[in-house]
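Structure catalogue
Derive tokens from sequence
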Amino acid sequence: MDGFSIFLLIVVLLVILTLFLGVKTVPQGFNWTVERFGRYTRMLHPGLNLIVPYIDQVGRKMNIMEQVIDIPQQEVITKDNATVSVDGVAFFQVFDAAKASYEVSSLENAIITITMTNIRSVMGSMDLDQVLSHRDEINERLLRVVDAAVSPWGVKVNRIEIKDIVPPANLVQSMGRQMQAEREKRAEILQAEGQRQSAILRAEGAKQSQILEAEGRREAAFRDAEGRERLAQAEARATEMVSQAVASGDVAALNYFIAEKYLKAFTELARSPNQKILMLPIESMGVLGSLAGIAEIAKETFSESRPPSSPRPSSRPTGPAGSAGGAGPAGSPSPFSPPPRPTGQG
């Protein structure tokens, strides 16, 4: 091989090397920085890019996709001097590759450090109960503070999540006893409230029962009074009708009225719940015979005082003096004078 051939070979190799150094293919999701003599000049975006060979070179290859980093576990002292172990995760994305490349050294390490520092600051200003029950508030405060801190680096923190909050073992036991006591307290309060409601309902029921019972007694008294009034009216009406019948000369109505009252009295005695044997005295049989005698005497009296041609007198008989209700002839009793008492018992 002569010298010309060697020269051509060297030229071809230089051309290939130049093309290789001047043509750059950037993958999707990345941004490359271009440095000229060590100074940043421009950014290469995904796709085919050309640079000046031997003068420009690729500086930093930055991932602009959203990334996640783990926040290591650390111990945090809360406001009430309780020590807890906390870890978490952070999601961030580079929106300015140049700033992320040249404004901070070791971007991920810087984000982890500033996040851990703010976790201690945020959770250290809260009580243990707030730390355990307000995770959303902690995440929101951390995101706001850390995002503002990393914004000059061309980084956007999208989300920060606290994964685990682990109190010490003795504190967990104390919290368990506290929770048990709290639940027992709630159970006793609910039981007392239930007893109170039950007592109130029973008292209301007794009150309503007494009110209804009083109303029932009042209504019954009204009904009894009305019934007695109706009965008295009926009794007065019956007595009036008997009086009119006797005045008209109908003796059977008087006998029926007296006998009905007498038998009704014996009926009430017989209906008594503690009455097993009903013994009629001898005088009662005499009274019944007397009633029959009274009926006969009254019938004879009214028969004698009536005219023979008339079955019933149209007016009251008068005495010799012509006065109504006076005595008749000698030996004949007046129909309105009391009949003679019978000598014997029927």
